[in-house]
Amino acid sequence: MSNVLRLAIVDPNDASRDALKTMLLGMDMLWLEAECSRYEFFADVVAQTNPNIGLVAIDKDPDKAIELVATLSEQSPDCAVLVVSSSNDGDLILRAIRAGAKEFLPQPVRVEDLLGALGRIGERSGGRGEGKPRGSQIIAVAGAIGGVGTTSIAVNLGCSLAADPQNSVALVDLDLCLGDADVLLDTIPDYTLVDVAQNVTRLDFSLLKRSLTKHSSGLFLLPRPVQLEDVPLITPEDLQRVIGLLKATFTHLILDLSKGYSPIDLIAMEMANEILLVAQLDLPCLRNVVRLMMSFGEMEHVAGKIKIVINRAGLENGQITPKKAQETIGKEIFWQLPNDYRTMIDARNNGVPLLEQAPKAAITHSIQSLARALSGDKDVPKPDLEGKVAGGLGRFFSFLPHKSETK
Ligand SMILES: Nc1ncnc2c1ncn2[C@@H]1O[C@H](COP(=O)(O)OP(=O)(O)O)[C@@H](O)[C@H]1O
Ligand SMILES: [Mg+2]
Fold it and tell me: How far is the CA of 343 from the centre of ligand 1 (A)?
């Protein structure tokens, strides 16, 4: 629990304290250490439990509450005090800040405001590890050509990550027209991305979690809209907010992108920490990788996050070698997944993840290792780039500004 923010709350008003608690309990990055209904006991509670954050709702008795804020700042300087009030009286805000409050949030508290305040508190206590929120890892899975294996990788990566009890993982199907993540997991969800996107301003964390479908692997799924007509209802701004909420709830978010590189896909890529660009070792696909990389190079928040993942390595003898592909793309191949059509298609047709269908198969191990590598495990062996060399690629890449030197 060391990288979760621990929080204690005081609010003599039962209704608003319960509302706050519901919001806080849904946030994976927070641990509710203690709650208190009396101002006079709270300084002791904080001294005994040592939370990172002390949340003081001051409306019930502002004078007494601000006195408490001053006491907390003096007695427990390591506890960042966050004041909540429905008043927008400048004088009151000033008094709270002078008494030592680090943040002042309007009541009723909006999730986004709270996240912003927590982020600032985390940054200020930066470097100390303990006080920093754990944060969420967002992994976008994009493909260089149709049918390259994006969804297979996204779903199975999600299930592999979810197998670790320390993780909470959600997969969002952003192939809004044709996505099939729900089929791969054999689920019939009650809600889809369109429901969540349209209600995003009204959602709290527990409602959000209930809108997602939980698979037996532990993975939560937010599927694409059922009706094609609903697709335009999801705007990039909505998606941004949905991802923001999910980020505060889950340790890992997997975003399965479409091949359209639409504004929705681009927002997802911008918000991701890592973008897996899935490719296969054939010319049309590698050519697209080079083209995409050129365009990504122009996008400030995208280029540096791309990781090339080769899928179906070893498919056929004539395949371009990974080494040659790497030279041509001009970028390191981060991962290679072996070809195993039988296992993949069985898992797909049975609607079960690889971990269940074939826990011992090489493809399953490879996805598990990819999950570990993405989680920062340095001991995972890197892919072998040796293999048989296929013919020259130069003419296929002649559109490049500097003509490829590969022969
Ligand atoms: N490593 C692999 N080996 C063999 N077949 C694979 C592999 N990865 C994916 N496939 C197959 O490729 C097809 C397309 O996969 P899918 O994940 O739907 O791609 P995308 O989401 O990019 O359209 C599916 O039939 C899937 O079973
Ligand atoms: Mg797909």
Answer: 11
